[in-house]
TrEMBL record:
This is L-lactate permease. It is a multi-pass membrane protein. Keywords: Cell membrane, Membrane, Transmembrane, Transmembrane helix, Transport. InterPro entries: Lactate_perm. Its main location: membrane.
Length: 520
């Protein structure tokens, strides 16, 4: 069978999912079920499991292994979602959300600035420190609390922190690439940042465009403001410049985390001291509402997020504690082709759950309300788990049946135009696997081999892979499912995908043009 027909068959499950969600507005669970049925049919009738051909029953063994991997990964992701849901429900029960809304509303009533603070800096910090779904799970509900519609909140958050995924979870995606290349961490980080810096500026602009689209629908629309160009430029430079410098001169571990800390500090100072006619946060004005004497203290209201930040920094930066937590490793292997691994004490979901329990105590929430928040979160997990399991099953089947390889081989036939499509392969990997790290593991070798075959600089394509994988996070069904779950709109994932697909496409196009220019 010709390579293009192989690629067409391999792409059909992805195409079916997109058509079902975008054209027929089906939920991720329904679209995933259709896509899984088609993937199973292709597996049984055509692709099979080439690496298991030596077994007596390769199809049965392959299906069992792929579904086991999918179930294991789904449980790991659900653990993060569960912790985030518990925190969100606790904040609603305790009234902490109202307190935070009041205090932040006195800092700014401009939805563009609020979105920058939450979906850009706060989400980027969480991505840099923990990654793996934590930003969407915590930041999107925050935007909903300020009046953004649930679908817009998830879309804005996914677009906002996407650039940080390249160096998320203390540089994990870049570290995954080092095993497949002879380049150093600094070289790979530099190559990735040279593309991500520009696509990040574009993604921030596209995020603010989405904010502008829904700003007039907020419960209390702000008064007319001057152009957001200055605040956009400040937010972009305040994060992207430190990110680029850290990636170039320090390494891949701190660009996202460090850039978010530096950028957020500068942006908050600018809001307080540079913005004209900014009200004194210590005194109420006609445009602000003073907290009542019974309002929860600010530190208590923010305690879940402060505890998350403290635990993330402690577990990631204190070496002895880091080593001890990671010493408990739950892993399994099947036929040397299928595996799963999790570090339960080091897992972001465990950090979120500990923050939930500690915050419940600090906020003096009753055991009854704490239990109610927990049971509500558990009830919300059922429809989410079905959607995740379907999408992840498709992912693992496509990897082990070499459908992903067929797509990559087809892309290589573009010849000298390949640099234009290199970021798209990174995004495709994230779309299929739900992880930029997994995408880099899948395709870094392929990008390097293709570069050598075409006489291109392999470092440029490795950077394109990392930058494209980050952009792919905006449209990955797994990320969208997680975000929708925490804001209570499971089943409406198509509305979010509709809002993130165009920004992702624009960012990938610009990334491709940059790679083409840099690769010569």
């Amino acid at each position: 069978m010709t390579w293009w027909l192989e690629a067409l068959l391999a792409a059909s499950p992805i195409a079916l999912i997109l058509v079902a969600m975008l054209l027929f507005k089906r939920s991720a669970a329904t679209a995933g079920a259709f896509g899984l049925l088609l993937t199973l049919a292709l597996t049984l009738l055509h692709f099979g499991f080439p690496s298991l051909s030596h077994l007596g029953a390769p199809l049965a063994a392959g299906l069992a292994g792929a579904l086991a991997e999918a179930s294991f990964t789904a449980a790991s992701i659900l653990w993060i979602i569960f912790g985030a849901l518990c925190i969100h429900r606790l904040q609603l029960h305790s009234g902490a959300i109202d307190t935070l809304r009041t205090h932040l509303g006195r800092l700014t009533d401009d939805p563009r600035q609020m979105a920058i603070l939450i979906a850009w800096f706060f989400a980027l910090f969480l991505e840099g420190a923990a990654g793996f779904g934590t930003p969407a799970a915590l930041a999107a509900p925050f935007l909903v609390a300020f009046g953004f519609s649930a679908a817009h909140a998830v879309a804005i958050t996914l677009i906002g922190y996407a650039v940080g995924v390249s160096f998320g979870a203390l540089g994990t995606p870049v570290m995954a690439q080092l095993a497949s290349t002879s380049f150093s961490a600094l070289e790979v980080g530099r190559a990735t940042s040279e593309i991500s810096t520009w696509t990040g500026a574009l993604l921030l602009a596209l995020m603010l465009w989405r904010v502008h689209q829904c700003a007039h629908k907020l419960p209390s629309p702000p008064p007319r403001r001057p152009s957001a160009l200055g605040w956009y430029a400040l937010a972009a430079i305040a994060f992207l410049l430190p990110m680029a410098l850290l990636a170039r001169y320090v390494g891949p571990e701190l660009p996202t985390l460090g850039g978010a800390v530096v950028g957020a500090s500068l942006f908050i100072l600018a809001i307080k001291y540079l913005r004209p006619n900014t009200p004194d946060p210590s005194e109420p004005t006609p445009d602000t509402v003073a907290p009542s004497p019974t309002t929860m203290p600010l530190w208590k209201a923010a305690s879940p997020y402060l505890i998350v930040i403290a635990l993330v920094l402690l577990t990631r930066q204190v070496t002895p504690l880091n080593t001890w937590l990671r010493s408990l490793d739950l892993s399994w292997h099947y036929l040397d082709h299928f595996q799963g691994r999790v570090e339960p004490l080091f897992h972001p979901g465990t950090i979120l759950l500990l923050a939930f329990l500690a915050a419940a105590r600090h906020q003096a929430v009753s055991l009854r309300d704490t239990a109610r928040a927990t049971t509500t979160a558990l009830r919300m997990l059922l429809p989410i788990s079905l959607a995740l399991l379907a999408m992840l099953s498709i992912s693992r089947l496509m990897v082990h049946t070499h459908m992903v390889d067929a797509l990559a081989e087809a892309a290589a036939h573009t010849g000298s135009a390949w640099p234009l499509f290199a970021p798209l392969i990174g995004a495709l990997g994230t779309f299929v696997t739900g992880s930029a790290t997994a995408s880099n593991i899948l395709f870094t070798d392929f990008q390097t081999t293709t570069a050598n075959h075409l006489g291109l600089n392999p470092l440029r394509l490795i950077g394109a892979q990392g930058a494209g994988a980050a952009i792919g996070n905006t449209i990955a069904p797994h990320s969208i499912i997680a975000g929708c779950a925490t804001v209570g709109i499971s089943g409406d994932e198509a509305d979010v995908l509709k809002r993130t697909l165009l920004p992702a496409a624009i960012a990938l196009l610009v990334a491709g043009l940059l790679v083409k220019l840099l690769a010569g």
